[in-house]
Design a protein that fits this description.
Blueprint: E1 15-20, H1 22-25, E2 26-27, E3 30-31, H2 33-48, E4 52-57, H3 60-67, H4 77-100, E5 106-111, H5 113-117, H6 119-134, E6 138-143, H7 149-154, H8 157-168, E7 172-177, E8 199-200, H9 205-211, H10 222-234, E9 239-244, H11 250-255, E10 262-264, H12 272-279, E11 285-289, H13 291-298, E12 309-314, E13 321-325, E14 331-336, H14 341-347, H15 355-359, E15 373-375, H16 376-380
Parallel strand pairs: 1-4, 1-7, 4-6, 5-6, 7-9, 8-10, 11-13
Antiparallel strand pairs: 2-3, 9-10, 11-12, 13-14, 14-15
Length: 381
C-alpha cells in the first residue's frame, strides 16, 4: 500500500502555530512595518478558511533598540533586557493596529522557559491561550526577555514555538525564516544553492549533520534549533514546515495546498504530561542506576525502585524533574522524583520494604513512578 503524502495533511491543520523570526520582520536592523501588514492579512485569510492561528513573534529587542536610537541590539544582557522592555510595547502595538484593520483582536502572552517548567503554570498558559482562541483572539506570544537572561543569550523562540504547539494542541508549526528550507548540504558563498529537501520523515543523525555544516552561516546554530523545534513538535503529533518568510501570503498558500520549504513529518505523539516532562521541565539532578534498573525501565516498562540506584548527583526536591543515567553517564530517562535527593541517596541500593525504616516515612515504593517517567528513546524516536 502506498504511503500517504504528508503535504496533503497541511490544508487539514485546524490549529497552526507560526513562528516569525527577526529576519522576517527587519532588514539590516531596520523594522519593516509593511511586513506586519502582510502577516496580519495572511493570518486573517487563513482564519477565514477555518484555521486557528497562534503567532510566536521575535522582534522586541530589535524594535526597542531602534526606539532607543541604538545602532546595535544591546551589547550586554541588561541592555538587551531594557530594549525588550521598550520594544515589546511597540511590537504588540504594531500587531494590534494591523490586525484591527481586519476586525481582529490580539492578546499578548509573555512566557519564559522557567515559567513553563512548572506544570501548574504550564496548564494555566494552556487554558488562557485556548480561551483566547475560543474568543476569536489571535495570541501573540514572545519570550519575556525583560526578565529572562538565558533565553536572550541563546535565542530560543524556535523551541518556544514548538512548546506552544504542545500547549495549545497544534496540528502544524510553520517557522518563517531567511532561508528556503533545509538544503541537501550547507550552502556556500558564491556557489549555486544546493537542492532543497522537500520532506523529512524523521530527524536522523544524517539530517543533523546537514544542519550543522561547519564553516557556514547556515550551520551557525540557527538551523540546529529549528531541527530541535521540529522534533519537539513531532512528539506533539504536529508537522513542521520551515520556509522563507518573505514569500507573499505564505500561510494561505500552504493551507491552499502549495508546497514551499521543507516539511518535517509528525512522529508518535507523547501524552501531554510526558511531552512536558521530556521537552519543557528542567532536570534538577541525576540518579545513576545499575544495568538491572536500566533493563527494568527500558525493556519492561517498570518504575524506578531504590534497589537499582547507585548514587545521586545534584540536589532536587520532591516532585522535581531528574535524569536517570547509566553507569557510563548516558541518559536513559527523565522523571519526577517521589523523594528528595537527600532521601534518594539514603535509599540507594535498599529494598522497597526498607523505605519507612530508613526514612521514617514513605511516599510509596517508587523513586520515580512509571507514569511520571519518559524514556530517552521516546524523545528521539
Amino acid at each position: 500500500m502506498a504511503q500517504s503524502d504528508p503535504w496533503q495533511q497541511v490544508p487539514r491543520a485546524k490549529r497552526i502555530v507560526v513562528k516569525i523570526g527577526s529576519s522576517t520582520l527587519t532588514r539590516e536592523g531596520q523594522l519593516r512595518p509593511a511586513k506586519f501588514t502582510a502577516i496580519a492579512r495572511d493570518v486573517f485569510r487563513v482564519r477565514e478558511r477555518g484555521h486557528q492561528v497562534v503567532v510566536v513573534s521575535s522582534g522586541a529587542i530589535a524594535i526597542g533598540s531602534g526606539r532607543l536610537g541604538w545602532d546595535h541590539n544591546g551589547r550586554t544582557i541588561r541592555e538587551k533586557q531594557a530594549a525588550a522592555a521598550v520594544g515589546q510595547i511597540g511590537l504588540v502595538e504594531l500587531y494590534q493596529r494591523r490586525f484591527a484593520r481586519h476586525g481582529l483582536h490580539v492578546g499578548q502572552v509573555l512566557l519564559t522557559r522557567a515559567g513553563l517548567e512548572n506544570r501548574e503554570r504550564f496548564m494555566n498558559a494552556r487554558h488562557t491561550m485556548l480561551e483566547l482562541l475560543g474568543l476569536g483572539v489571535v495570541p501573540i506570544v514572545n519570550e519575556n526577555d525583560t526578565v529572562a537572561t538565558e533565553e536572550i543569550r541563546f535565542g530560543d523562540n524556535d523551541n518556544l514555538a514548538a512548546t506552544i504547539v504542545n500547549v495549545v494542541g497544534g496540528d502544524l508549526l510553520v517557522i518563517l525564516t531567511d532561508v528556503e528550507g533545509l538544503y541537501e548540504r550547507p550552502p556556500e558563498a558564491g556557489q549555486p544553492k544546493p537542492p532543497l529537501i522537500r520532506t523529512v520523515p524523521k530527524i536522523t543523525p544524517a539530517v543533523e549533520r546537514i544542519a550543522s555544516g561547519a564553516g557556514s552561516r547556515y550551520g551557525s546554530g540557527g538551523m540546529i534549533t529549528k531541527l530541535q523545534a521540529a522534533r519537539n513538535a513531532a512528539h506533539s503529533g504536529a508537522a513542521t514546515i520551515l520556509c522563507h518568510g518573505q514569500i507573499s501570503g505564505i500561510l494561505e498558500k500552504l493551507v491552499s495546498g502549495e508546497r514551499h520549504g521543507t516539511l518535517f513529518e509528525p512522529g508518535e505523539k507523547l501524552r501531554g504530561h510526558k511531552h512536558w516532562l521530556a521537552f519543557t521541565a528542567k532536570s534538577r539532578g541525576r540518579i545513576v542506576i545499575d544495568a538491572g534498573a536500566v533493563r527494568a525501565l527500558c525493556e519492561r516498562g517498570r518504575s524506578l525502585l531504590p534497589a537499582g540506584i547507585l548514587r545521586v548527583e545534584g540536589e532536587f526536591r520532591i516532585g522535581e524533574s531528574v535524569t536517570c543515567v547509566n553507569e557510563g553517564g548516558q541518559e536513559v530517562a527523565r522523571g519526577l522524583a517521589s523523594y528528595s535527593s537527600i532521601d534518594v541517596a539514603r535509599l540507594a541500593g535498599e529494598r522497597t520494604n526498607a523505605i519507612e525504616r530508613v526514612l521514617g516515612y514513605s511516599n510509596g515504593d517508587e523513586i520515580i513512578h512509571r507514569d511520571d517517567l519518559v524514556l530517552l528513546r521516546e524523545m528521539r524516536d
